């Protein structure tokens, strides 16, 4: 054997027995790990699932079972303890497998739904348009935030537009002191009454008034 003793001792006995069985002609007993002699091999029970050998006395079989197992054309199967423990877990594992299959199926469906939603969101063109509208509205509100509306300011009698604007500015001066503003704070004065908005949104003075 190529294995050192130290290496073999570190392994579980069952693993060693299985390895020895695979790599050599020697048939070790899965229970006691000692070799099964040539004259014992004929009668040594072998697990019908994992194919490991046992000494007759190590197999845990009673005398009548031993006789039945050793018979050449036997109909009784022999399974080692490890395999029997594994078999007992099969119904449980089968159930878990079915559950896992169902979970995977529903997860796949959820992923498909999310994928579709993502595609629709990315493909939507109304989002940039909405964003533009929102930004425009925000700018517009910021621009109008300092607007001041003054009612009942006497109308100028002048025919000149420049004079009318000048008169409106002058009329506002007494008010500026009351609200602690200087003349420099006024960007533009518009007399709303005399202005109309055309189809393009531009303001112009109403004619004939
Ligand atoms: Zn044995
Ligand atoms: Zn077995």
UniProtKB/TrEMBL annotation:
Keyword annotations from UniProtKB, A to Z:
Coiled coil
Origin: domain of life? Eukaryota
UniProt feature coiled coil, ranges = 90-117
**Record-given protein name:** Zinc finger PHD-type domain-containing protein
Which organism does this sequence originate in?
A: Ceutorhynchus assimilis (cabbage seed weevil)
């Amino acid at each position: 054997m190529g294995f050192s003793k130290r290496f073999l001792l570190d392994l579980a006995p069952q693993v060693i027995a299985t390895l020895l069985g695979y790599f050599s002609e020697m048939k070790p007993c899965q229970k006691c790990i000692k070799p099964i002699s040539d004259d014992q091999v004929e009668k040594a029970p072998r697990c019908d699932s994992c194919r490991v050998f046992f000494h007759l006395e190590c197999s845990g079989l009673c005398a009548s079972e031993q006789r039945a197992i050793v018979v050449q054309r036997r109909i009784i199967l022999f399974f080692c303890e490890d395999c029997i423990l594994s078999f007992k877990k099969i119904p449980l594992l089968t159930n878990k497998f079915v559950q896992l299959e169902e979970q995977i199926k529903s997860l796949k469906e959820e992923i498909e739904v999310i994928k579709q939603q993502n595609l629709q969101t990315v493909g939507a063109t109304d989002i940039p348009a909405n964003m533009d509208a929102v930004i425009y509205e925000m700018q517009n509100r910021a621009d109008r935030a300092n607007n001041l509306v003054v009612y009942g300011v006497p109308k100028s009698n002048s025919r000149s537009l420049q004079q009318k604007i000048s008169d409106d500015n002058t009329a506002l001066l007494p008010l500026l002191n009351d609200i602690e503003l200087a003349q420099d704070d006024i960007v533009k004065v518009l007399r709303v009454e005399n202005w109309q908005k055309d189809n393009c949104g531009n303001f112009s003075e109403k004619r004939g008034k």
